[in-house]
Design a protein that fits this description.
Blueprint lengths: L8 H15 L2 H17 L5 H36 L18 E6 L3 E6 L8 E6 L2 E4 L4 E2 L13 E2 H4 L12 E2 L7 E2 L2 H15 L3 H7 L1 H12 L6 H12 L8 H8 L5 E5 L2 E5 L14 H5 L10 H20 L2 H4 L5 H8 L8 H17 L1 E8 L10 E10 L7 E2 L5 E6 L2 E6 L10 E2 L10 H12 L6 H8 L19 E3 L2 E4 L7 E3 H23 L3 H16 L7 H17 L2 H19 L4 H16 L3 H19 L4 H15 L10
Parallel strand pairs: 13-16
Antiparallel strand pairs: 1-2, 3-15, 4-12, 5-6, 7-8, 9-10, 11-12, 14-15, 17-18, 18-19
Length: 669
């Protein structure tokens, strides 16, 4: 268009084709090559030698395209069957946001739960649900190393980096004009938040930060009810309040008010229709709406009197501020049709309806709040090998996810994108089996007694999952990732106060207190090494870590979690020095510890394999890198699906390695 010499245009078109191949836009690349060949055939402009070079280059590009197309077809064929479900392949007619592979059941002992209606493969998407409500957790200080030597507090929190409505990461947030605390990724998000709830919350920001995130979630849930036909819920609340002394209800009345049954009988076309499962509408459908939220159990009878008093006091303080606002303020943002719907069912004459609804929600949250998490990279961006951790971004309510019961060894894996939770099968689930999720206490992280105590104190039940049943009957031997070993023969040692060697020919014994003290000292030394690593003092960090490694070998089992952490840190340090061979060797030792503790198909194993793939990739160990990439993809696809950032990165590495020309006698790790 701008007068580029016609005789040189084939070179420009060739460059375009090469770029398109690298970008993976294979169809466009093929078309560009075809256009180039047609153009040259019609009007040759190159000398014979240049034409031969062009032909060889075009032949090479065509082979690349063919290889990538074959790879894409192979990968697509393998993945399409299990992972064409970035969205649910067939949505459930009984449960919104759920796959047709599951069904909702109820039981007098374990309440509502989901079961498989067919055999489910690992990686299959079972639930994809947007939070009914979510509130950003502002207090988490992120471990970002900005390199700022300043007397000012430059710490960064979730509230600075994530949109307060959609939770998307935003490095140039748009602050609210009123409070400047709430920040959004765009003007559109800011306006939507204002219309839905922030017009009420804006002036309450300081109070909400003081009262805590549960109180904030309770308020926002009630505000969102204004936009739904929540008449059945609120009429029941209004009726309960009007039939009781609402000044200071007795504990019995409080339980009755907050534990009402929203199920039961309804009328449809003049006939009485039974709603068998709480939370379902008269047609038997369970949806992500305010009615389902209200049917989540508040466990009022299980909470301590002190906790209920604290919740009631918090809601009372919030109600006083709400009462100070005019009724018109509560209607801000509603259209005329929604305004009419909201005024009738939601704002009944007694202002205490707001308080009762919010108190119910606050009591629900201990058992039904879901932590919305994200995988964040830690350390400096200059690190070639990615190290990451899971952080809690927000607290939300997911009515469908809340139907999942707990297991310390679950058959599902949960991840989040923005405010959307996805639940995938982490293993084969047979038809009729229950779909189970872990509430936090996992068998790979805690012993049976600790898990039981945590579940009882927070969720008010005694876990009887197979992992707990097996653990109760197992011997007192500690798991290998927590076990000590004999300093003489390296056999595992067992016992309570005094641990004895398990080797019959060895008579070594040692007190548990002594070993625990050594372990604490070792962890302090590892902490010093990590500080050196963060400050870029790599040689000193390596020497410190090698000393820790030698100490650990003298009294910890080879699969102890601390041993794995030391090996992982050594891998990071050697990678920073560019010594890929040593880095890979140490990370492979860490990988063995992760496999013993979490299993070969665990998400933790996937993250470690991803790091190992990065090491092989940077070390130009092509066969090892491709093999590790394949393993990492296989594991991570099950837990996250094809849209995950690490999977995208693995596919880019694979594409780059396949494009490399053969390296005779190239480096190998």
């Amino acid at each position: 268009m701008h007068g580029y010499p016609e005789r040189l245009q084939p070179k420009m078109m060739l460059r375009k084709a090469e770029c398109l191949v690298l970008l993976g836009r294979l169809q466009e690349a093929s078309q560009t090559i075809s256009d180039l060949e047609s153009s040259f055939a019609a009007k040759p402009t190159l000398a014979a030698s240049q034409f031969q070079i062009l032909q060889r280059t075009l032949c090479r590009l065509k082979m690349k395209i063919q290889k990538k197309e074959n790879l894409t077809e192979t990968v697509s064929a393998a993945l399409t069957k299990a992972f064409e479900d970035m969205d649910l392949r067939e949505e459930n007619k009984q449960i919104s946001s759920a796959s047709a592979s599951v069904s909702l059941c109820t039981d007098p002992f374990k309440g509502r739960y989901l079961i498989a209606t067919k055999d489910i493969l690992p990686g299959e998407l079972l639930v994809k649900e947007d939070a009914f409500v979510s509130v950003l957790n502002p207090a988490e200080v992120l471990p970002l190393h900005l390199g700022l030597e300043s007397k000012w507090d430059t710490r960064v929190t979730n509230g600075d980096l994530y949109c307060h409505r959609c939770l998307k990461r935003s490095l140039a947030p748009v602050p609210c004009d009123g409070c400047s605390y709430a920040k959004y990724c765009s003007q559109e998000c800011m306006q939507q938040a204002w219309d839905l709830y922030h017009n009420i919350e804006c002036s309450l920001g300081a109070l909400l930060l003081t009262l805590g995130v549960f109180c904030h979630v309770a308020l926002r849930s009630t505000l969102l009810a204004r936009f739904e036909d929540a008449g059945e819920v609120t009429r029941k609340l209004c009726g309960d309040i009007s039939n009781k002394d609402t000044r200071l209800p007795e504990s019995k009345n409080l339980v009755q008010t907050l534990s009402y049954d929203l199920g039961g009988e309804s009328e449809k076309n003049g006939k009485t229709v039974e709603t068998p499962i709480p939370g379902c509408d008269i047609n038997g459908k369970y949806e992500n709406n305010y009615y389902a939220v209200c049917n989540l159990l508040p466990h009022t009878e299980n909470h301590s009197a002190e906790y209920k008093f604290l919740c009631a006091l918090s809601i009372s303080a919030l109600c006083r501020q709400l009462e100070a606002a005019s009724p018109q303020a509560l209607m801000t943002g509603l259209t005329s049709s929604k305004l009419k719907a909201a005024m009738a069912p939601v704002l009944c004459p007694e202002s205490s309806i707001w308080g009762v609804a919010m108190l119910r929600h606050m009591l629900q949250l201990q058992c039904n709040a879901q932590a919305i998490t994200a995988i964040q990279q830690t350390g400096s961006k200059e690190n070639i090998i990615t190290d990451s951790r899971q952080v809690r971004l927000a607290t939300g309510i997911f009515p469908v996810v809340s139907l999942l019961n707990h297991s310390c060894s679950p058959n599902t894996s949960m991840s989040f994108v923005s405010t959307v939770a996805t639940v995938r099968a982490s293993q084969h689930i047979g038809k009729g089996q229950e779909i189970l999720h872990c509430y936090g206490p996992h068998e790979s992280r805690m012993g049976v007694a600790e898990r039981q105590q945590k579940l009882r104190s927070q969720y008010f039940f005694d876990c009887t999952c197979p992992a707990c049943q097996h653990g109760k009957h197992r011997t007192t031997a500690e798991p290998r990732w927590e076990a000590f070993c004999c300093c003489s023969c390296r056999a595992l040692i067992q016992g309570d106060e005094v641990l004895s060697c398990g080797n019959a020919s060895c008579t070594e014994s040692v007190s548990r207190d002594h070993l625990v003290s050594r372990l604490q000292d070792l962890q302090q030394q590892v902490g010093i090494a990590r500080k050196l690593l963060r400050n870029g003092k790599l040689e000193r960090a390596i020497q410190q870590l090698l000393g820790c490694q030698h100490d650990a070998e003298s009294f910890l089992s080879a699969e102890h979690s601390v041993v794995g952490e030391i090996e992982d840190d050594l891998a990071q340090a050697y990678a920073a020095l560019g010594d890929w061979q040593k880095s890979a060797a140490h990370l492979q030792k860490s990988l063995r510890v992760v496999e013993v503790r979490h299993g070969p198909s665990s998400v933790e194993m996937g993250h470690e394999l991803f790091k190992l793939a990065q090491i092989f990739f940077n070390g130009f160990a092509v066969p090892e890198a491709l093999n590790t990439i394949r393993k990492a993809e296989k594991v991570l696809l099950v837990h996250y699906g094809p849209g995950n950032d690490e999977i995208q990165e693995l596919q880019k590495m694979k594409s780059c390695l396949l494009d490399l020309p053969p390296i005779p006698g190239g480096p190998s790790l």
